[in-house]
Amino acid sequence: MMAASANTNGGDHTVELIVLGASESAADGGSSASASEEIKPLLTPSMRPKINIFSVSHSRRKPREIVIKVPETEISPVSQFILWVWSGSRYSGLVCMALSSIIYFVMEVLSGNFTAQSIPLFETAFTRCTITLILSYLWLRRSGQPMFGATNPRNLLVLRALVGYLSLLSFIYCIQRIPFSHAIMLSFTTPIVASIMARIILHEKLKIAEIGGLACSFFGMLFIFQQMLTTQGGLLKAEESSNTSFRRSNQIYAALIGFLSSITGGICYCLIKAAAKASDQAVVTVFSFGILASPAAGICTFALEEFVLPSFYSLSLMLALGILSFLAEVFLARGLQLEKISNVANVQFIEVALSQLWGIGTSRIAPSFGRLVGCLLILISVSCTMYFGPEKEIE
Questions:
Q1: Residue 338 CB partners (closer than 8 Å, separation 6+)
Q2: Distant-in-sequence, close-in-space partners of 334: CB < 8 Å, separation ≥ 6
Q3: What residue ranges carry the coiled-coil annotation (predicted)?
Q4: pLDDT on residue 320
Q5: Distance CA 42, CA 156 (A)
Q6: How many Cα atoms occupy the beta-carbon half-sphere of 240 within 13 Å?
Q7: Burial state string for 220-229 with b = 16 or more CB within 10 A and e = fewer than 16
Q8: Consecutive H or E run containing 3
């Protein structure tokens, strides 16, 4: 600190300059101390980074964690289960096929409990194929997938559509001309034929345990339909003696057509698996089938049958069954894409067991020893496939 003073002695002028040090300035009164405190900065350099207008009083990770956790809490358990099933985990293929069979069972329950006007089979097939075509198209557009898949599997997709529609035509012809139980028996030879065709076409190894599981499920189905077959056989003989419209030669011909439906259905399973794996999209196989089956079934509806205008109630039921049919076809294609055909084919027999147990539980079917044994055989076989199938596939 500097101080200046001036003295006058006669005509001479003397100027005196005094420089005070830091210790001397500290010894001065409160004025000097207050002046130094005003000059002193409020924050030292070491303290400045700790307080900043861009800093917050809590960690920056907490808001991010909250943002991430909120969507997880919004996902329902059903959505999480479907994502787990569709993701291709260890049991995804078997669970997808089980869901497909359960959906077909639900369709059977709805058809039996909610009676509507009689609709011709080709008209019913046309409605379901059209709904399948529309929903699969919307699925592919929403997911951004190409409509016809990659270039390589297009031949497989065309063959899948042709063979699949041939199987559908054969089954419709068969179910119109033979008793319902016979047609169901023939249709459930498709899993066995598919396993054999997978060994021939796709060179899949068919193990003894898998053969035993298929045989166990098929014998269980024979136990279930044994009484129905013998009863309808007796009725058939009585009708033949009275010159009814059903003749044995026509039934044998219709049964052969039904077996053709099983063979083409087994080949179609192999084509679905090959096309789904080549295109990496199971819904593409469903869409390709709808492109051919929908217009073809429409032509057959107006050419071979008399069109029946459905009521609002019947149309609503047909739409609901069409949506369920689409979901069943999607899960079936995904199951074939992920798992061996011999394993997923055995899981399909669960539909028969569930149908019989539902009928017994609702008193629509009389319980019998054969039905109970058949359901038990199917449930044991399917449970063993679900439990041991993925283990063996990994090994």
A1: 88, 92, 93, 96
A2: 86, 92, 93, 96, 276, 282
A3: none
A4: 93
A5: 80
A6: 11
A7: bbebbbbebe
A8: strand 2-9
At 2 the three-state DSSP class reads strand
**What pLDDT band is residue 149 in, cutting at 50, 70 and 90?**
low
Other CB atoms within a 10 A radius of the CB of residue 234 amount to 10
Q: How much is the CA Rg of the chain, to the nearest whole Å?
A: 40
Distance CA 75, CA 14 (A): 93
Q: What share of the chain is helix, strand, coil (3-state, %, to 5)?
A: 75, 5, 20
> How far is residue 228's CA from residue 352's CA, in Å, rounded to a whole number?
14
For tokens 């929908």, name the residue.
Answer: 294
Q: Cα–Cα distance between 129 and 287 in angstroms, integer?
A: 10
Rounded distance between C-alpha atoms, residue 169 and residue 258, angstroms: 10
Q: In the 8-state DSSP scheme, what is residue 198?
A: H
The more confidently predicted of residues 25 and 175 is 175
In this model, does residue 81 exceed pLDDT 80?
no
Question: Tokens 């394993």 appear where?
Answer: 343
Q: Report the length, in residues, of the chain.
A: 395
Whether residue 110 has pLDDT greater than 50 = yes
Q: Tell me the DSSP string of 60-106.
A: THHHHHHHHHHHHHHS-HHHHHHHHHHTT-TTHHHHHHHHHHHHHHH
For residue 305, which amino acid is it?
E
Helix ranges (H only) for 75-207 are: 77-86, 92-113, 121-143, 154-177, 180-187, 190-201
CB distance 343 to 94 below 8 Å: yes
For 287-332, how does the pLDDT look when each residue is reduced to its tens digit (9 = 90+)? 999 999 999 999 988 888 888 888 888 889 999 999 999 999 999 9
pLDDT of residue 329: 94
Query: Which of 197, 188, 137 lies closest to 336 in space, CA to CA?
Result: 197
| DSSP for residue 244 | -
Q: Which residues of 351-379 are buried (b: 16+ CB within 10 A; e: fewer)?
A: bbbbbbbbbbeeeebeeeebbeebbebbb
The better pLDDT of the pair 99, 228 is held by 99
Angle, helix 248-279 to helix 180-187, in steps of 10 degrees: 30
